[in-house]
Amino acid sequence: xxxxxxxxxxxxxxxxxxxxxxxxxxxxxxxxxxxxxxxxxxxxxxxxxxxxxxxxxxxxxxxxxx
Length: 66
Known about the structure:
Elements: H1 3-31, H2 39-65
């Protein structure tokens, strides 16, 4: 498998994780004030998932430029 194909496969996994993290954050917001202490951990999980996804997308874009 090429680097490009590997990155695309990884992007699919990261995209699914980011989507799940977004849904977890959304679900938490609908349940508030129940489980309010978990706001920061759920938000950080979503933040980190999207940050990693963004890094890999930029990495793929750079790879495709070369």
